[in-house]
Amino acid sequence: MTLENQTLQHGQPAWDSPSPDPAKAPAAQEGPTLDEFRRLTAAEQDSDFIAMESKTYLQDAWSRLKRNRLAMFGLIVVSLIILTAIIGPMVSPYAYDEFSSSKNAMPSAQHIFGTDKFGRDIFTRIMYGARISLSVGIAAAMINLVIGIVYGGIAGYLGGRVDLYMMRVVDILYSIPTMLYVILIMLMFGANIISIMIGICVSSWVGMARIVRSQVMSLKQQEFAMAAQVMGASTMRILVRHLILNSMGPIIVTVTLMIPQAIFTEAFLSFVGVGISAPQASWGTLAQNAKQVIDTYPVQVIWPVAAICVTMLSLNFVGDGLTEALDPKKK
Questions:
Q1: What average pLDDT does the structure give for the chain?
Q2: Of 249, 141, 118, which is closest to residue 204 (Cα–Cα)?
Q3: pLDDT tens digit sequence for 280-319
Q4: Which CATH number fits domain 59-92+102-330: 1.10.10.200, 1.20.910.10, 3.40.50.620, 1.10.3720.10?
């Protein structure tokens, strides 16, 4: 279209377009006036902040553990078993070694789990057996904890040839089955609780030592450990306060998983007849006694086996829950 056509169609030249009216132009944005400024109330000030509760490492781990249903279920079951083992035999109307004329009785109101071939109340013996089995498991785990922390902490912190020689000892002990240690010690010192604990602890601590060593070797290269060393902190203080305490997550998980292993070892030894002897009653001993009448009274073997299985599963649930709760990467 030519310039003349544009002029004819619009009645005026294209370059002579009307300019915008200044009166109709939008007013410029003005700043806030003094009347708009005022002091905020306390409620308005609080609404501008998001309140967030400050939690420690253990508090945060506990809150995450509570969200794990299996772990909480296992923790409740284990707590009930411990309370039953402590209080049950004291309030039971029967003694664990009390004989009666009601032999091989089926479960009833008088005997909830029935009686064995000697007329002893099975429920009372299950509660008493929980004392022995849990005592062996917890005591063995605690001894392994102390030995493993000391041995693994020294090896990991010193490093070099000391670590090399100490870990070769660990490898040698780890290559021999735990059951062999237990049987040899029980043959030397007799079948009792102390012998079983010593036998379990002879080789079980090596797993804890390896975990502590790896944690210490990793943490001693961190800045906080090097800063403590530069500031003149003693070796013991650095090892205990800065390295071991910061490794408690994996250590607690390992201890939790050691307890069911020790319980199973004791139960197996008692079941095959080389563990705790009568009249003491562990869960393995009860299963071994029930095996003799399993053809005619199979219900008697159910109770000790169920106690072992429930306890081991519950402790493993707690251990798995602690693994997730104490892992800083899963915050």
A1: 81
A2: 141
A3: 788 988 888 888 888 888 888 999 999 999 999 999 999 8
A4: 1.10.3720.10
Token readout for 87 is: 């209080």
Tokens at 330, concatenated: 């899963």
Nearest to 266 by CA among 286, 238, 251: 286
DSSP structural state of residue 244: I
Q: How far apart are CA 313 and CA 307, in angstroms?
A: 10
Lowest mean pLDDT, pick from 51-60, 72-81, 244-253, 278-287: 51-60
∠ at Cα 74 (73, 77), nearest 5°? 85
Residue 31's φ and ψ, nearest 5 degrees, are: -75, 170
Report the C-alpha gap between 126 and 89 in whole angstroms.
9
Q: Is the pLDDT of residue 49 over 80?
A: no
Torsion of CA 203, 208, 213, 215, to 10 degrees: 170
Q: Both tokens of residue 229?
A: 């060393």
**Is it the case that residue 52 has pLDDT exceeding 70?**
no
b/e per residue 213-224 (b: at least 16 CB within 10 A):
bebbbebbeeee
- In angstroms, the CA 105 to CA 99 distance is 13
